[in-house]
Amino acid sequence: MNLSAQARQVPKTPVTLMYRVYKYVLPEVRAELARLRVIAERIPDDELRVQALASMTSKQFHCEGGGIYAAANLNSRHILVPLIVCLQTISDYLDNLCDRSTSLAADDFRLLHQSMLDAVDPEAPLRDYYALRSEREDGGYLHELVRTCQSCVRQLPSYASVQPHVTELVGLYGDLQVHKHIAKELREPALLVWWEAHRHQVPHLQWNEFAAATGSTLGMFMLFLAASDEACTPEDALRIRGAYFPHVCGLHIMLDYLIDQEEDRIGGDLNFCNYYTNQSQLTERIGLIVENARKDVTRLPVPRFHRMVIEGLIALYLSDPKVSGQQDVRLVSRRLMRRSPLTRLFFWGNSVVIRKRQSSN
Q1: Do 85 and 62 meet the contact criterion of CB atoms below 8 Å apart?
Q2: Residue closest to 119 by CA, chosen among 92, 81, 88
Q3: Residues 265-268: contacts with CB under 8 Å, at least 24 apart
Q4: Which of the residues 48, 81, 147, 180 has an alpha carbon 20 to 30 A from that of 280?
Q5: Residue 336: its pLDDT value, please?
Q6: What does pLDDT average to in each consecutive run of 10 residues of the chain (361 residues)?
Q7: How far apart (Å, rounded) are the C-alpha atoms in residues 192 and 204?
Q8: What pLDDT does residue 201 have?
Q9: Are 113 and 178 within 8 A, CB to CB?
């Protein structure tokens, strides 16, 4: 992959990256969320409205974190920010809907997640994604999210090069959401059958680690960033997919599950960190995923940017207030943070500052 003019603009130091995040990314992500919130507040169905608003309130940091990829190409941020925010918002909204669903039907969850597949296909027709559930009147909210994504991907000059891999990752994400939200007694068997069909691709991973990797949107966002460069080829796209999936994506979601263990216990939700014999094995496996992720991104241009993403992920999740309230998680966090590079400590401090600013707004 040649170092294009765009690649040369990618921030290479934590200070440059965070300057762009504070000056451009956070304000524009929040402006897009504010636009969506106005539409969500008008949703006629009470349950759909509650879940749409809750997803934006409690998971705003997902959109802010994804916005890092827009910081790597400021000239295209008018496309990348709304695209990342709207696709992430579909993901968070549907996760809320499925988590607290009145339905446990796989067909219902599959149809809901068809909206994500349609969002990344500029030619896909809009459908009635709620056809198999009782709550259906959303005032056009989900269609607006899908349409915004479609409009943005149409504007990416190399989208044809990345689209097959984006579709693959979105498809795996949808599979995961279907299997993990059906009736409790069916979830694990369904996930294991699904794993059998894919394990040959990632034989070094355990089934729960593969499943976690499919739950990340980071590979999709990185492919969007690549497609904003007109020089991106199908070979480049394949290299990016291989560098992000499964390890960078897997690290992202294993950290997410790590800090949500107590919450998921209370809610009776499936958590992929619960499939280890003890916390030492959990720490060791996450540590291995970190090592593999670091190794994988060295194959990409400007590997320093992707290493910052990895350190930023660790800092963002392990600085979450949820960590201090869970003794087991606190111990794992300390072990993972031991001998942290300065970059990670820098992002740790920034994560704390951003959270404080958010809570005071």
Answers
A1: no
A2: 88
A3: 267/99, 268/184
A4: 180
A5: 78
A6: 63 93 96 98 96 93 94 96 98 92 88 98 97 94 98 98 98 97 93 96 96 98 97 96 98 93 84 91 92 95 93 88 82 77 83 76 63
A7: 16
A8: 93
A9: yes
Amino acid at 246: P
The 3-state secondary structure of 247-272, one letter per residue: HHHHHHHHHHHHHCHHHHHHHCCCCH
- Regarding pTM above 0.85, the answer is yes
- Tell me if residue 1 falls in helix, strand or coil: coil
The pLDDT value given to residue 256: 92
Q: What is the distance between the terminal CA atoms of the chain, rounded to a whole angstrom?
A: 43
Contacts of 203 (CB under 8 A, 6+ apart): none
Q: What does the alpha-carbon distance between residue 65 and residue 314 come to, in Å, rounded to a whole number?
A: 12
Q: 247-259 and 327-337 are packed helices; what angle lies between their axes, rounded to 10 degrees?
A: 140
263-269 own/partner pairs: CB under 8 Å, 24+ apart: 263/322, 267/99, 268/184, 269/99
DSSP category for residue 125: P
Pair of tokens at residue 133: 């559930």
Max CA distance (Å), the chain: 52
Cα-based distances in Å from 227 to 69, 107, 237: 12, 32, 8
For residue 250, the tally of other CB atoms under 10 A from its CB is 29
Tell me which residue of 115, 104, 82 sits closest to 228, measured CA to CA: 82
Contact 158, 227 (CB under 8 A): yes
The 10 Å Cβ neighbour count of residue 360 is 6
pLDDT digits (tens, 9 = 90+) for 171-223: 999 999 999 999 999 999 999 999 999 999 999 999 999 999 999 999 999 99
Q: Give the alpha-carbon dihedral of 212, 216, 220, 222, to 10 degrees.
A: -100
Inter-residue contact 242 to 216 (CB < 8 Å): no
Structure tokens at 69: 């990829």
- Assigned token pair, 59: 């998971």
